[in-house]
Every structure is written in C-alpha cells, then in structure tokens.
Design goal:
Number of helices of chain B: 7
Structural class of chain B: alpha/beta
Distance between the termini of chain A: 25 Å
Number of helices of chain A: 9
Number of domains of chain A: 1
Chains: A mainly alpha (227), B alpha/beta (234), C mainly alpha (246)
Helix content of chain B: 25-40%
Largest interface: A-B, 38 and 42 residues
Largest sheet of chain B: 5 strands, parallel
Strand order of the largest sheet of chain B: 6-7-8-3-9
Oligomer: heterotrimer
Structural class of chain A: mainly alpha
Order of helices and strands of chain A: HHHHHHHHH
Number of strands of chain B: 9
Strand content of chain A: under 5%
Shape of chain B: globular
Radius of gyration of chain A: 18 Å
Strand content of chain B: 15-25%
Helix content of chain A: over 70%
Chain lengths: 227, 234, 246
C-alpha cells in the first residue's frame, strides 16, 4: 500500500468519526457538563473560602478533566465493536496503529478539545488569576490528547468484555498520575507568578511518548480483544 | 515517496517479522490458500483438529456444520483475526501471521455483523470500506446498483431493512479488489431474490479467478466453480 | 536448535516435575535465610540513634518494596515472552506472579504505615515511596482484575501481558513524578524511610531478608505455577495419570 492511500484512509476514517459525532451532536455536551458539574461540587463540599479555592483550584479542575475524559472513553471503540466495523479496521490493508491514531484524534477533537473552551469559565469559578488560566488552557491542550491516547489502550483491552467499563478506570487512572501531578502543579506555579517551562516540557514529553507508543499498544490490544 | 508502508511494524508480535516480505508479486502460479493441521479449542472443547485443505483460484470452499461446530471460528482463523491453537494457514506459501496487512490486501470478510455504520449513508459506508481496503474498479454508486440498492444512496443505513443492510454489507466486497472472499452466513435476512443475487455475485467472483470460503445454513447453488465441502460436525 | 531447547524447557510436564523437586530446597533455603535475617535484624543490630528500635520494621519494609518492583518487571518480561514466542509456561509464570507481587506491595504499604505511626503520629503519610507503592498496587490490581474478567485463559494472558508492558514503561515515569511532587509538598518533617547512613550491621540483615524474600517469591511462584499448569493441562494424558489413584 502506498503512503498516498494510507493518508486517504486516515483522512476518511477521521472524517467518518467526526461525521458520526456530529450526527449525535447532543451527546457531545455530556462530558462538558460533567466537567463543569464536578468542579462546581467542590466549593459546595469544602466551603467557598477564596484562599482555599485558589489553593485547590488547579488540582480540582484537572481531576475533573480526568474524570470527564474517563467518562467519554468507552465511546472510542464500543459502537464499532458492536456493529462489526472494528473487525474491519483490523482487516484493513493499512497498519492498524495508524487507523487507531485517526480514531483517537477524532475522539480528542470531540471530547477533549471542548474542555479547553470551558476551562476559562471554571478558572473564574475558582478564582484563578489570568496567568494561571492561560497555563491551564495550555496544559489542557497538551494533556487531553495524552488522556485520549492512554485511555485508548485501556478501552482496547476491555472492549470485548461484557462489563468492560467497570474496570476501565482501574486500568487507566494509575497511568494518568504523572500527567495530573505536572499539569496541576504547572497551574499552581503559574498562579504564583513563577515560570512553568519545565512543567510544559515534561507534559510535552509525555505527549510525544504517548503519540509514538500508545497506538502500537492499542493495536495489539485490539487484536487480542477481537480474537 | 512511494515507499510501501505497513510492512513489518505492528502486526503479530513475532520474531519472524524482522525480515518482512518485500513487494511480493502475487503470480497466478503460486496463488492459493492452504490450511494444514488447524486446531481450534473453545471453552475447553476441541472444535476441530488436524483440519487441512487447499483452495486454488476459481474454487469455492463451503463449510457446513451445526451451530457451535466452529464454522465462524474457522473463518476467523482464515481471516487472521483469530490465532489457531495448532497448525497454520498459508497464503501463496507464506504463513499469514507473517504477512499481516499484505494478506489483508487480498482478502475481504463479511461476518455475522454487517460491518457498516448505521448512522452513515450507504455511499459513505462504501467510501470508507473502499479506502480501508484495496480500492477496486467498481465505484460505490455502481456497487449499490449491483446489489439493487439504487436510489438508497443517501438514506441513512439505519432506515434500511435488515435485508437491505445485509446487501450493503456484501456491496463492500464489490468496491474493493480482493482475491479471497471470506463470508459468514451471507444469506442471512435475504429473500429469495436477494439470495439469487448474491449467488450470482459469488459465481462472478470465482469466474474471474477469485477464491471463496463461505458458510451457510442454506444450500448454496454454485454451478461453475469446483466446490470443496468441509463438514465440521463430522 | 535454540528454539527446540526453549520449547523443551517450556514443556509444562517437564516444568511440573522439575519445579516439584526444587520446592523443598527452596523452602529450606528461604526459612534459613529468613531466620538469620530476622535474628540479625531484630537482635544483633543496634538501635538507631534517631529512631530507637522502631526502625527495625525497615528489614521487612524495604525488601518488600524492592520485591514489589522486581516482581512487576519479571511479570512484564514473562508476559512479553509469552506474547512474542507464545510459550505457555511464560504466561503461567506471569499470572502466578501477579498476586504475589500485589501481596508484597501491600506488605510494603502496611509496614510503611506502621513505621510512620510512632514517628509522625499518623497512620498514613504521603511520602514519595509510599505513594509510589500505592500506585503500583493499583497497577497490580488492574492486572488481576483484567485477568479475571476474561474467560479464555490464553486471551487473558495475552491481554494482561500488554497491560503489564504498558505498566512497566510507566513505572519509572510515575516514580519520578511522585518523587518530584513530594519535594514540593514537603511538610515540616522529612519522611526519610531509608536510613541515610546505613551501617554494616544493618546492611547485612537487610540483604539477608532481601535474598530470603526472593527465594520466597520463587517458591510461591513455582507452587502457583504448578497449580496453574495442572488447571490448563487438565485434558492431557499426563495430568490424568497424576490424578488417578495409585
């Protein structure tokens, strides 16, 4: 197969998934609402003292983002598994890891990118300074693809199981720990007015690592789940 | 760049991928599907063992057997989705687990589930199927005509009947250029006219030198191609 | 050829008998080393000038933590071998290690917690090592959960191998992240679970316990693996022969 037809397959698969998401537009809003709701629960739970909120804000927003990502993960492969199109991906003449990348990209565009748009609102709710909000958006931009990429491995391992969604969090959340630590701390540090280039570089490194390795692991896991 | 992608980097973890096949041209001479010593164990039961056959161009393999006798598992082994518990399947002399996408280039599979998205139109579904496989000469529109779905190009697949959806699934075979067709119960949900239509497609395919492996509960009437029958309940 | 040698060594029947013969020796060696280690650690080694006698739990905590990491790496390695070369024995060893590894991790957490109580008054402290061990425990539990969720044992073994490999790549990253995180949120008391200057009288029992734990791991893994082999091969002739009354 030529690289030309591979590019076309990638583009068409991406377009297909985006089209499918658009035809169920109403569902796209669920992770967003969850994100906002969970973040809003914290002041209710711990009290609305401004200093307290400012101290816990970044961590709270990032944990909420993690949970929102987790909620939407199952959709990457579930419907494809049920109607038989997932098998067709494995039987394609193109490398499965590239096709997986197309699907994860579509998933991120639909579920991860919108979180970025809502983040400033949450920053305001938790009284974050403007610099911190800017860094928050940057960490979300770099970090949400990592959530989708790593999550895809977990979903691929559990897609064939009847109650796969139940153990998905157990499989995936430990892998999210480094990202959470660095991203939340980046926003915290930015709120204090200090430079965060080290944090951003580390998160970018995580992104590059995830981009290069997780499609391979996902492809292998899909083959195992569908055998 | 024109460099062939997809060779040797992500399929079956196996040390033998260190020397991937490079651009092996499929000549009509060595074209064949061979199975030797195939064994399949499911839930601690051996469904079949020591299964052998050779399929040459223009021939059809029909699998018969009761429900649960392993027909679907055998087809999935032939596709390469499932690994056999013993034995091997060879395409043109090489084990399919070593070929990876090179083998999938030449095969098309329609299983129990249709493999189409209900929220896309038939045209959109076929466009994707075409891009994922080896594009054939038949355009999606022409393929839809051949399976008598002319006029339904832009209707959401969800709104088609079960028989129409099945025909759409089989139309995938027409838009890709595949030598080997692997079909699991292709006649499900089809009426008599649909069955006759599909049988003529199968005849056409084997007539052009294609290979066919198919299971069915109904008796399949294929006049021309030499037919091998394997009964798994035996 | 090399491949043939591997396959003979990996024959479940061969393994079952060889492992059976090794068991008593391993058990004896493990018992001796553990008694020696405990004797040297609890009685011979002097009390620490800072922590008094309560530091002695280190002789269980530190080797347990080492084992938890070691076993995970072995599990990932065996899983990878099982995946690439499809050797059944490798799959068996991988899954037999999972529970043992989880137990060592749990032991490390509990002993770490016990160590912390007399020092800081709380049962749990978010020290770098304890937090890393906690995440490691979740990784182990994930593997065990995934294995039990899949019905077919061979598919389950392959899936957990992938998960273990993904985990093993992430462990250094997690460890580094948690260490870094810990340096930021340092409380007034520094949690120093490793004695900074380790005297030879403390080093010897530590190493004795480390080796004893390793023997214990091998012992338990072989025992579990033998059971797993019997389970997987229960339809073959040699297993049926074993089951028949003499």
């Amino acid at each position: 197969m030529t690289s030309d037809s591979l590019t076309r397959a990638f583009a068409l698969l991406l377009k297909r998934d985006l089209l499918l998401a658009m035809r169920h537009r109403a569902e796209m809003i669920n992770p967003l609402l969850f994100f906002v709701l969970v973040t809003s629960l914290f002041p209710l739970g711990i009290g609305a003292y401004p200093e307290l909120l400012r101290a816990v804000g970044p961590g709270v927003i990032w944990v909420a983002a993690l949970l929102a990502a987790l909620l939407s993960l199952d959709g990457i492969f579930r419907s494809d598994f049920e109607d038989g199109t997932l098998e067709q991906l494995l039987l394609s003449s193109h490398p499965v890891s590239v096709l997986v990348l197309a699907k994860v990209l579509a998933h991120w565009l639909v579920t991860g990118l919108p979180l970025l748009l809502v983040a400033p609102l949450l920053g305001i709710l938790l009284d974050l300074p403007v610099d911190a909000i800017r860094i928050l958006m940057l960490t979300l931009l770099l970090g949400t693809p990592v959530l989708s990429l790593l999550g895809a491995v977990g979903v691929a391992l559990t897609v064939g199981l009847r109650k796969g969604g139940k153990i998905l969090s157990l499989l995936v959340l430990p892998l999210y720990v480094p990202l959470l630590i660095f991203a939340a701390n980046a926003v915290d540090t930015a709120a204090a007015g200090l430079p965060v280039s080290a944090h951003l570089l580390f998160i970018s490194a995580l992104l590059v690592l995830a981009l290069s390795l997780s499609p391979l692991a996902t492809a292998a896991a899909l083959r195992i789940s569908l055998s | 760049m024109g460099q062939t992608t997809g060779k040797g980097y992500d399929y079956r973890f196996s040390p033998s991928i260190h020397r991937p096949l490079l651009n092996q041209t499929v000549s009509q001479n060595n074209l064949s599907l061979e199975a030797t010593g195939l064994e399949c164990i499911r839930d601690d039961r051996t469904l079949f063992s020591d299964l052998e056959f050779t399929l040459n161009p223009g021939e059809a393999l029909i699998l018969e057997g009761r429900n649960g006798s392993g027909k679907t598992s055998l087809l999935r082994i032939l596709c390469g989705i499932r690994l056999p518990d013993a034995g091997s399947v060879r395409w043109c002399g090489t084990d399919i687990t070593r070929l990876g996408p090179d083998y999938h280039e030449h095969t098309a599979y329609v299983g129990h589930r249709d493999g189409i998205k209900l929220d896309l139109t038939p045209l959109e579904n076929l466009a994707v199927a075409r891009a994922l496989g080896t594009p054939g000469e038949t355009s999606p529109t022409a393929a839809l005509e051949q399976v008598e779905l002319y006029g339904y190009e832009d209707v959401l697949t969800r709104n088609l009947s079960a028989g129409q959806q099945r025909r759409l699934a089989l139309a995938r075979l027409l838009v890709t250029d595949s030598l080997l067709w692997i079909l699991d119960e292709p006649f499900t949900s089809l009426d008599r006219r649909g069955i006759a239509l599909v049988e003529s497609l199968l005849e056409q395919h084997t007539g052009k030198g294609g290979l066919l492996a198919v299971t069915s509960h109904h008796a399949i009437n294929l006049d021309n191609p030499p037919v091998q029958t394997i009964n798994l309940s035996a | 050829m090399f491949n043939n040698f591997f396959h003979k060594l990996a024959s479940p029947k061969y393994f079952y008998h060889i492992a059976g013969r090794l068991l008593p020796w391993l058990a004896a060696g493990c018992a001796v080393l553990m008694l020696a280690g405990l004797y040297y650690g609890l009685i011979v080694a002097p009390p620490d000038y800072q922590q008094g006698d309560s530091y002695r739990i280190m002789f269980v905590h530190v080797p347990a933590a080492w084992m938890s990491l070691f076993i995970y790496v072995v599990m990932a390695g065996a899983g990878a071998i099982g995946l690439v070369w499809r050797i059944k024995l490798a799959e068996v060893i991988a899954i037999s290690s999972a529970t043992v590894g989880a137990s060592f991790t749990f032991l490390a957490l509990v002993t770490g917690s016990i160590w912390g109580k007399p020092m800081w008054g709380t049962w749990w402290v978010w020290d770098a090592r304890l937090t890393s061990e906690l995440v490691l425990l979740f990784l182990y539990l994930g593997i065990i959960a995934l294995y039990s969720a899949i019905d077919d044992k061979r598919t389950a073994a392959r899936a957990t191998a992938i998960l273990a490999i993904v985990g093993v790549v992430n462990i250094p990253i997690i460890h580094f992240s948690v260490e870094w995180w810990n340096t930021l949120h340092q409380g007034p008391t520094v949690a120093k679970f490793g004695a900074p200057s380790i005297d030879i009288s403390m080093l010897i029992p530590l190493l004795l316990m480390a080796v004893a734990f390793k023997l214990y791991y091998v012992l338990v893994v072989l025992m579990r693996a033998r059971c797993e082999v019997l389970d997987r091969e229960r339809h073959t002739g040699w297993v049926k022969q074993l089951a028949e009354p003499q």
